[in-house]
Design a protein that fits this description.
The chain has 20 helices and 23 strands. It is of the alpha+beta class. It has 4 domains: 145 residues, Beta-Lactamase; 165 residues, Beta-Lactamase (2-Layer Sandwich), CATH 3.30.450.40; 151 residues, 2-Layer Sandwich (Heat Shock Protein 90); 124 residues, 3-Layer(aba) Sandwich (Rossmann fold). Strand 7 and strand 8 form a beta hairpin. It is rod-shaped.
């Protein structure tokens, strides 16, 4: 019986067992073929479908349609308008269109339906398709439907949360965030009001700080007590659980409901904020009429509350950061001012200290110079006194003259050491192999000190050439060896070592390192900073001038090197002299070598131009050269010298010129003569010249002041013979 219902599931059996005779459709076996065929297709479909037949739109449906009906009474055989009477005002017109022959399709259509004991908002996508007979007449319609409530609600929630997030992003105040949130919730959910409150420390009193209300609803701002709203509110909210009331008049005691009703609230959802185990704040949504809160609404207010508190914490954190930054900036400004003040004070103190140290050093320097020169002047003055006696015999006269000459030499040496320390001496750098020179110095020192001091020499296997002033190098090494001898009390082993291809930190180039190491008493750490100061000495009075290490320091620096000291008290001291290493020079021609013995030349009436601005020195130099057979002309300045050289009697054989003079000076004169008369010999002389000290002789012959008659004549003979 009714084989076309076979395989139609639960609804097929219900259709088979239903009393259709009492309906306009009549018994099953009398149903038209179009209806039977449509019902068979509907029952076999997995999509929710309902057949609405005849003018009354009697309902038949498949198993998949049952969930859409929910807990509604049995819909089988009933008019569709009766089944969905609560929504018929929204869908009735669409049904009429379908029965008129139009296929009606609509997506995510919102309907308020009652299928689970109360009204609810649901969304459906459905199609009403006309069912026609053989003659084309519309006999009914097929309702194919899908409920989209879940996806629509999810999208609505996400859109709302996204819009809320965008709205509060730029908010910088918690009240602003809460005002935006409550306003959007009232509009989105169709509420009568939404409010937020801050709890008192006793967790009972609370203050509603802000609210959003729909037109016609009362404002809620004010102070309240939680216990007035009932035991359910107290227990759930203090436990951190939401309070959900659909109708307080039915669900609460009369006195508790009266508290809600007094402020226009019948339905409510209240969300608590627990911090540190204490109830600290509330957010609530309300309706003035009974309302069954949906899962969507409960989930949304929960998530919005959580996000709202997070936004508030962000704003508060930002405010704290801004406050901390402002405090830090103020502190930095104060600190910078204090640091600037302190730095200024320190710089002033440092400047005063440097000035004090400078004055102390100058005092020590001038005192030492005065002391040594006064000693020399005393010897010279005393010798002059004795030389003025008429009855002085020849032997004593020679002794006094020699004493005066020795004093002059010591004075010249003293000024040379001072200039060496100041790096203002006139050097004559040359490239030479250091090993043989050090070997000769070691042999000389070994012989001079006897058997008690032994010099141990260590040289590299390969030749090591350096660029330096040989005479000053010998003086520096001898000074270091003498200091080492004295540190060992005249007994022990001095180690003299040469190392090639050394490097110095922060100073480019390759250096040769000459070390002098003793096994003496060492130097106290507090004295290491002063050992290179001129006239500083730890020796007993009369045992040292305090200028030896000053000469070493100045010579090393002016030569482009340095001197380092390493000392351990009780174990000894090592001084290392670093000097620029140079490639080996080209081999000398046999005739270029200095013979080492100079015969004092005779003037042979050669014409010499003396350029000297000091009358006493000029007269003395002219007299020396005249006595040795030279023909002399004297100019008081470089400008006058150029005038004589370019005049009618300007055919001179050599020029002997001071360096430091008013006007263009001797060095500029020499350079000009090199351009005008490259074959004319020029000898420069100076007690001190900054230009010579910094730039060297620039290829000109040089004779340092003070000089003797023999030195002048020897230098002239050398350049004239060349």
């Amino acid at each position: 019986m009714a084989k076309w219902l076979d395989g139609g599931g639960q609804m097929a059996e219900r259709i088979r067992n239903h009393d259709w005779a009492a309906t306009p459709l009549g018994p099953l076996d009398q149903w038209p073929d179009a209806l039977k065929t449509t019902v068979a297709l509907c029952l076999a479909s997995r999509f929710p479908q309902a057949i609405l037949w005849g003018p009354a739109l009697l309902t038949l449906h498949n198993d998949a349609f049952i969930p859409i009906l929910g807990q509604k009474p049995l819909a089988l055989g009933k008019p569709f308008s009766e089944v969905w009477q609560e929504a018929w005002a929204d869908i009735g017109m669409m049904a009429d269109r379908a029965m008129a022959g139009e296929a009606v399709y609509i997506e995510d259509f919102p309907l308020t339906i009652n299928r689970n004991g109360g009204p609810e908002r649901a969304y459906f996508t459905f199609c009403y398709s006309p069912i026609r007979g053989h003659d084309g007449e519309v006999l009914g319609m097929l309702d194919t439907v899908t409920e989209t409530t879940s996806s629509v609600v999810t999208n609505q929630r996400l859109n709302f949360l996204d819009n809320l997030g965008r709205a509060v992003t730029e908010a910088t105040d918690p009240d602003q965030i809460l005002a935006i949130t409550t306003g959007m919730l009232v509009e989105h959910l169709g509420l009568s009001s939404c409010a937020y409150a801050v709890m008192a420390p006793d967790q009972d009193g609370f203050t509603i700080c802000g609210d959003a209300v729909a037109p016609g609803s009362p404002r809620l701002v004010g102070q309240y007590h939680l216990h007035d709203f009932g035991r359910l509110a107290v227990s759930r909210l203090r436990s951190g659980l939401p309070l959900v009331i659909n109708d307080n008049l039915r669900e609460l005691a009369a006195d508790e409901a009266a508290t809600f009703q007094a402020i226009g609230i019948t339905a409510t959802i209240c969300m608590p904020l627990i911090k540190g185990g204490r109830l600290t704040a509330l957010m609530a949504i309300h309706d003035r009429v009974p309302r069954v809160w949906t899962d969507y609404e409960q989930a949304l207010i929960s998530e919005v509350t959580e996000r709202c508190w997070a936004h508030i914490q962000r704003v508060q954190a930002n405010a704290e950061v801004r406050e901390a930054m402002a405090t830090l900036e103020a502190l930095n400004a104060t600190l910078e001012h204090r640091v600037e003040e302190r730095t200024t004070q320190l710089l002033h103190t440092e400047a005063v200290l440097r000035q004090t140290q400078k004055l102390e050093a100058i005092g020590q320097l001038t005192g030492g110079v005065a002391h040594d020169f006064n000693n020399l002047l005393t010897i010279i003055r005393s010798s002059l006194h004795f030389l003025q006696r008429p009855n002085l015999d020849g032997e004593r006269r020679e002794r006094y003259l020699k004493t005066m000459a020795d004093s002059v030499d010591r004075g010249a040496k003293l000024t040379g050491q001072l200039l060496a320390f100041a790096r203002r001496q006139a050097l004559s750098p040359q490239v030479f192999e250091a090993g043989p020179r050090l070997e000769a110095m070691a042999d000389m020192f070994d012989t001079a000190t006897g058997a008690r001091v032994h010099v141990k020499l260590q040289l590299p296997q390969a030749p090591c050439h350096i660029r330096a002033d040989l005479s000053q190098l010998e003086t520096a090494v001898i000074n270091l060896m003498l200091n080492g001898r004295d540190a060992m009390a005249g007994e022990g082993t001095l180690r003299l070592r040469l190392l090639a291809d050394q490097h110095m930190p922060e100073q480019p180039g390759v250096f040769a390192a000459i070390s002098v190491t003793d096994s003496g008493v060492g130097i106290a750490p507090e004295l290491l900073e002063r050992i290179f100061d001129p006239f500083f000495t730890t020796k007993a009075p009369g045992e040292g001038t305090g200028l030896g290490l000053s000469q070493v320091f100045g010579f090393a620096k002016q030569s482009g090197g340095d001197v380092k000291v390493n000392s351990i008290q009780g174990q000894g001291t090592s001084f290392t002299l670093y000097l620029p290493q140079a490639p080996a020079p080209a081999a000398q021609l046999p005739g270029d070598a200095d013979s080492g013995t100079q015969v004092q030349p005779v003037g042979e009436r050669r014409r010499i131009l003396v350029v000297e601005d000091n009358p006493d020195v000029g007269n003395f130099t002219a007299q020396i050269l005249h006595d040795h057979g030279y023909h002399i002309s004297w100019a008081c300045s470089a400008e006058e010298a150029l005038a004589q050289l370019n005049g009618p009697n300007g055919n001179f054989d050599a020029v002997f010129s001071d360096v430091v003079m008013p006007g263009i000076g001797g060095l500029a004169l020499a350079r000009e003569l090199r351009k005008q008369r490259p074959q004319l010999p020029v000898i420069l002389t100076s007690g001190y010249s900054e230009a010579i000290a910094e730039g060297g002789h620039q290829g000109f012959a040089f004779l340092a002041k003070p000089y003797s008659a023999e030195q002048v004549c020897q230098m002239l003979g050398k350049v004239l013979d060349a």
